[in-house]
Design goal:
By secondary structure, the chain is an alpha/beta fold. It folds into 2 domains: about 30 residues; about 100 residues, Rhodanese-like domain (Oxidized Rhodanese, domain 1), CATH 3.40.250. It is built from 7 helices and 5 strands, in the order ααβαβαβαβαβα. The radius of gyration is 19 Å and the shape is elongated.
Length: about 140
Amino acid sequence: MTLNFVSQHLFQVALVFATGLLFLWPDISRLMGQYKEITPAAAVQLINHSHALVIDVRPANDFELGHIPKSVNIPLDHLLANGLGSHDAKERPVLLITTGQNPNRASSALKKIGVTEILILKGGISAWINDQLPIQKKPA
């Protein structure tokens, strides 16, 4: 009976399966080692003790409104097209700051150029601000 239902409604079953896969894709990517999420507190330790390269992939105007001190702004489209430019990240961890953007695209681009340790700030810049950690703004 179940196989009969599946064969009669193959398109609908495939659609439900594909939708579920798309919904779970960020978790699947994280579990497959594409990147690891870390808390703001762990990010502070990483920055202070492992000399992580902090890359903020938000648009430049968002970056200027407030960013993690010593972070580098490489908007996502630029990162996808040009990589890290002159920034060397093969020997140290890379912490990505994203907000409302899919971290899979940025982490895939970094993997392609040889970055081995990619971390994502869980909750993005909002989590950093909520934890009352320092923010640097563009001078007025």
